[in-house]
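Run log // design_07
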């Protein structure tokens, strides 16, 4: 579990562009499932698009705000929800206990790689329809794991960024470490040195697997930082949040070098 309902991303950099759009969407997956999404577009797009992948609680205010912050930096951003098949396409109608593990567990266990891939593909199609030719996946916790998986060629991404995404197998289901040979997009990963959920051995194994596969990647570990250090109220870890945002912006800028600024109105 990652961010509480009232969590917010840290305010790290001032806005470069006003928002042209910040709106809730309902998208349709390949199997006909309707699911929730959120799109934020800048008045002028100067960089790659960003597909934002939430933690295991799905689409929440933290991720709507994160998408808006990215759009203010010139990046059209779209967040997808994971639970259209079991919880419907309106996250706001879900009971409060949905965000607690006992209420969430049956929905989480019902997720499949095929369903997740189909929803990510639908999100990518909608984001690309808004203008950006290149897209980077950005995920947190469960979403970080999915962002690493999305570095596979079938998604056509320019890169993948994960904050504390568990990389190893879970209950026999292969994770990014086991899938490393199939991952081709460059990866940037952030880890908390005091993360109780992701041991250094798991990070090292993922690093070794990507290196063996020839995948370009950069891992950054912040000593003493916990699992969810990128959060406004985690003031004692603000240096880690600020540095990771700076590195994220650099990663996006490297993939935006050939982009032509364009109005999205």
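design_07 sequence
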């Amino acid at each position: 579990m990652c961010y509480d309902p009232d969590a917010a991303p840290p305010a790290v950099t001032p806005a470069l562009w006003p928002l042209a759009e910040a709106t809730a969407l309902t998208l349709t997956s390949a199997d006909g499932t309707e699911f929730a999404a959120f799109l934020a577009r800048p008045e002028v797009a100067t960089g790659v698009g960003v597909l934002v992948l939430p933690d295991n609680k799905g689409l929440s205010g933290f991720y709507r705000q994160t998408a808006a912050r990215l759009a203010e930096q010139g990046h059209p951003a779209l967040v997808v929800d994971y639970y259209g098949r079991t919880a419907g396409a309106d996250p706001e109608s879900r009971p409060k206990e949905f965000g607690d593990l006992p209420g969430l567990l049956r929905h989480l266990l019902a997720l499949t790689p095929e369903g997740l891939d189909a929803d990510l593909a639908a999100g990518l199609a909608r984001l690309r329809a808004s203008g950006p030719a290149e897209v980077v996946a950005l995920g947190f916790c469960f979403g970080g794991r999915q962002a690493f998986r999305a570095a596979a060629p079938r998604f056509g991404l320019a890169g993948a960024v994960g904050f504390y995404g568990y990389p190893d197998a879970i209950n026999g289901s292969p994770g990014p470490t086991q899938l490393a040979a199939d991952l081709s997009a460059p990866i940037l990963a952030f880890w908390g040195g005091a993360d109780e959920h992701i041991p250094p051995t798991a990070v090292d194994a993922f690093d070794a697997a990507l290196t063996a596969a020839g995948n370009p990647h950069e891992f950054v570990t912040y000593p003493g930082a916990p699992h969810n250090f990128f959060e406004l109220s985690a003031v004692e870890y603000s240096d880690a949040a600020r540095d990771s945002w700076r590195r994220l912006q650099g990663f996006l800028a490297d993939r935006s070098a050939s982009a032509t600024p364009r109005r999205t109105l």
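Strands lie at 19-28, 34-42, 44-45, 49-53, 77-80, 135-140, 159-163, 187-192, 217-222, 262-263.
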